[in-house]
Write the structure tokens for this entry.
Amino acid sequence: MNKLTITILPALLLAACGGGGDSAPAAATAPEMIVVINRAPVPQPNADGAALTFTASGSIDAANPFFKAFGNGRSCASCHTQADGWSITPQGLRARFAATQGLDPVFSLNDGANSPNAPAGTIDQKRLAYSMLLTKGVIRVGLPVPSGADFTLVRADDPYGFASAAELSLFRRPLPSANLAFAASLMWDTRETFPGASMDVNLLHQANSAVRGHAQAAVDLTAAEQRTIVDFEKSLFHAQSSSSTAGDLTGLAGPARLSTQAFQAGDRIAFRLFGAWTGDQNPARAAIARGENLFNTRPMNITQVAGFAPLPQRGTCSSCHNALNTGSQSVARTFNTGVSAGILRTPDMPLYVLRNAATGEEMETTDPGVAMVTGRWGDIGRFKTPNLRGAAARAPYFHDGSARDLDAVVRFYDRRFRMGLNPQEIADMAAFLKAL
């Protein structure tokens, strides 16, 4: 029998802690005390089976300040929930919106809304104000064009009437707070990755930045709070534990096995998990094995990708997702694969026209990415390579939530890099990604 730890917490933390059902917390307003029982993590269902979190302690510590409400009532868990792969999903957010009538702290105007000036007095106004959060699971990151940048903002076409050079609205998915042992950089634009600093130092700074920014706390975290939050995050290993078609995954690729994985480059063969299923009599397992092989070996034409050199060249999915059996980038590199190109803009996204100060060249983008940190023209549209483990739990995908499912992710790269995948190969590679 698992040992239970019982912690007494104020009810205002219930929305953050969640437990096994953190997609639909109670309204964070009641003053009474709640008993939270820390149990060993249990599989969390998703569209492709279930995902599981592994911790060395064997339980999720609900008393950790990761679950503590700060400032506007948010905690780290407001945007990083176990049920949603330690990120958030539109499905989970809609459940929270319905359960709390839009009063859950995640629905905060400062960055949860499409604009900080959006009216949100009624439930209908709230649905409109938080539509990007509810449909794509994206937080609005407000950043100014850096001082001294070698580009200027020519025009901002913001459907929500807010963005300007003083503060662009950049809609981004919260990256998962699990599997951080395999991170070479932090944040989509690496703005919490400091030259010469260890990942531990970066994480400590990021924890405080999130509490001061997203939670609008008036004071910094204490050193002890920072330390315990980061230690908790670093203890989380998350992966798909079962497939709705292939069955149990823990023997080959579950989170306990992931916790023993060394962080290293994969020598062009990034994933070596499902080889034993090659030619398996179970067609779903055979498809996963074929998809892994395609991921590792199918050639693509890598052209016009800022951050990748030399160009052009032939590569594979493992060229960028090269960390062994995890799919992150093993060093702190960023790439522009074209996700934020203006030509792909949808009506719900802002569009920015930027001009090179030296050449006069103009570029349209929905998010300048790393360029909003460095101010460099060549960094426009560059983003970090995300970890792929546990991906099935946290749709939609890409930094802006523009890919509805993993099949759409595969189709995007098939078109972008002329991989020439047939329908069966697209299905096989998606099956592999869903099993991670």
Q: What stands out?
A: The longest strand covers residues 151-157.
